[in-house]
Amino acid sequence: MRAHPAGPRHADVIVAGNTAGSRPSTTDQLDALHPDVWPRNASRGDDGVVRLAGVDVRELAERYGTPLFVMDEADFRARCAEHARAFGDPTLVHYASKAFLSVEVARWVAQEGLSLDVCSGGELAVALRADFPPERIALHGNNKSVAELAAAVEAGVGAVVVDSYFEIARLDQIARDRGVVQPVMIRVTVGVEAHTHEFIATAHEDQKFGFSLSSGDAAEAAGRVIKAEGLSLVGLHSHIGSQIFDANGFEVAARRVIELVAQLRDKHGPELLDTLSTVDLGGGLGIAYTPDDDPPPPAFLAEQLRTIVSKECEHNDLPMPKIAVEPGRAIVGPGTVTLYEVGTIKDVELDAGLSRRYVSVDGGMSDNIRTALYDAVYDCRLVSRAAEHDSAAVLCRVVGKHCEAGDVVVRDCWLPADLAPGDLIAVAATGAYCYVMASGYNRLPRPAVVAVTDGTSRPLLRRETEDDLLRLEVS
Ligand SMILES: Cc1ncc(COP(=O)(O)O)c(C=O)c1O
Ligand SMILES: N[C@@H](CCCC[NH3+])C(=O)O
């Protein structure tokens, strides 16, 4: 066994209360890539090296550098197809591009037949650069600028999801100025606040998004859209949160949105339903970040939603609407890993004779802010080789290289005692909300993003260079 240059000086590290679960007792367990957490085409060869869609991680690191986001293209496409099958029509599944977007990924989404949710002019521009069919794009946002609204109308997007009275007036004006009628959905705040593993119904909807249902704002907004010459009301939209494992929150939301449809029909007449034909229940389906997470498959959620919507429609004597959804994380999250090179390893003495092993990597909170921001939990493994056969599992904290004590990538994970500088480790399920939330903190260049498929790799987004970092300087 390789001697560890940094220790360990203490036989035991902190174990109690860790978020990485119990200590693996064999090196096989230490090396395992749980199929629910790791990309579908990730495997560890007999030589101990992990291959992603058949591509050796050492080769990826050598060719593109680290940190590196590696996307399993087939995994992404398969999840698009599974959602499309579950909801019966691919165009009813809007991939939430805020989770991750590049021109090439927008092309994959288009090829899989899905629709696209964008929430800024920037995301819209990427989609249009990919020639994404505009009629399959919906624009979101609580404070879209006039320029963003105009760009969307001029592109001919399939829907603008309106979020304020000001926006209804602005969008109506923009559409009329251009002699078009813009299809619109209303974002409804249904009073269901979803958290990771639970949901709580709130009496007051204390948040910036949407029109409150309980106050009557949602009905008033619908009335204004119906009256606006430049707008056509095609749907109601609700989004209850993200990383949700339980269908109950969606069911409550669906029920309340259908009640609103019935109310609007009663007030404005049944002809309204000729255009108001879609109920969009947003995104939020959770994924497994660790083997303990057990998210429901899309087919299960789709079935639950169909059942509840059909029951509510029957109850309110309404025709069955189209049920649309906007998954982001559930499509792009699980198929991507971040590859890092280990730089330094330190055992830090704590109270009561315990110590904590800090493993520093060449990225950090600038490429994954989710741990610092949400206490997110991740699975992390040594991937450039197997653990030495007699290596013990050591509870580690994987940290970045930023000038910030809270710069933690993985709070707790079990790594082999023989882990050493130069080894590559990978953090699983980083496809959603990591690259897109990356920052340039401490002037670290943003990592590259590569796609792997059938034993080959190609870059989607190149690594930032020092020139990129300096390009905004005016002197
Ligand atoms: C309106 C809307 N739709 C879709 C999504 C995508 O959510 P997720 O990535 O959790 O599926 C979000 C983000 O929470 C959202 O705000
Ligand atoms: N960014 C969040 C989710 C927000 C989703 C967008 N409304 C995350 O990383 O989990």
Automatic annotation (TrEMBL):
Record: residues binding pyridoxal 5'-phosphate: G284, E326, P327, G328, R329, Y433
A Pfam family assignment: Orn_DAP_Arg_deC
Main EC class the enzyme belongs to: lyase
Segments for region (Disordered): 1-28
Gene3D superfamilies in alphabetical order: Alanine racemase, Lyase, Ornithine Decarboxylase, Chain A, domain 1
Known EC number: 4.1.1.20
Role according to the record: Specifically catalyzes the decarboxylation of meso-diaminopimelate (meso-DAP) to L-lysine.
Record protein name field: Diaminopimelate decarboxylase
The species this protein was found in: Solihabitans fulvus
